[in-house]
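Quick one, T. Sequence first:
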Amino acid sequence: MSKIGIALLALAGLVLLDFLLRRMEARGWIYYRKGSGAGGLGPALEQLHGAFDSDVKAAVEYQQEEEIEETRVGEPKTPSAPAVPATPAVPVTPPTPATPATPSTTATPATPATPATPATSEAPAAPVTTPTPPTPRQPRCGPAILLLSSFVALGLIGCSLDRTSWTTDGSYRATETAIDGTTRAVSRSASIVPSPSRNDRIRLCGETWIGLQMYFSPSDHGTVAEFEARLDGSLCDIGVHDVIGGHAIVWGPVPGDEDLTTGIRSDEWTLSGTLEVTEFARVGSPPKRVDEEKVVETMRGVFHLVASHVDGDTIRLDDGSFDLSVIARRYRFEP
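Structure tokens:
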């Protein structure tokens, strides 16, 4: 993956994180963009704690309600308003014959002007003027969360650049009988042939193919470079396994360039024989640090192999013994 691709992936992650934070703010869990107050990492963590702790959230809501009630209780009351109904008590003076004086009392209805005191009743509007928005004393933590998540995303991208490579190292010793009938003791390389269905990791318990190196003579086209034998069991299973198939890798020209030589699969050779796994062990776990290499699995065994060609030629490997190791190496991937 190129650096541009990684940058686009990180940007997409930040956009997704911004969307999730907005959803959390819409549900009232956090203050992301609409909050107020000083920002900072400490207040951001306090905000997160309050969002996920129901007891703290309930206490904050209770404190806000108490503050609103205190502002309402502290508002001035209008004593003149209840005094207005007391003026109708003047007509209770009917025993006095000077009823005309009552019109003068009727002039007292000018006191209804006192209802103009409802201007004082506008005092209930005081709660509107009270700074209710600042009552949530929880700071704005959106920028802090976004900055923190950016560092986390970059860290994950950095970790994702680490890779583990898997290889095998092994050898075998046997008595070889060549096509011309001559015999000799040989000591060559042995390896595990990757199964087509497996991923990059090599596990002996998932492998059933073994490769035995033969002749290193690229100039002689048709010479066997390696035998690849397939067993009827896994390489980690202790016991005797039959060779149920396989083929040869022979030296041949590269298609389109006769001057170059490469290994070519040949199905003109058929394989038979047995292989016995005598030892198997898991000796470690894959490495965690970059540039670290560890042996993960080992195995040993004995075998004999017969390779037959369609024209009647035969190559034998008798009294063979082998050992194999699976090696894992951690490295930094450079896209």
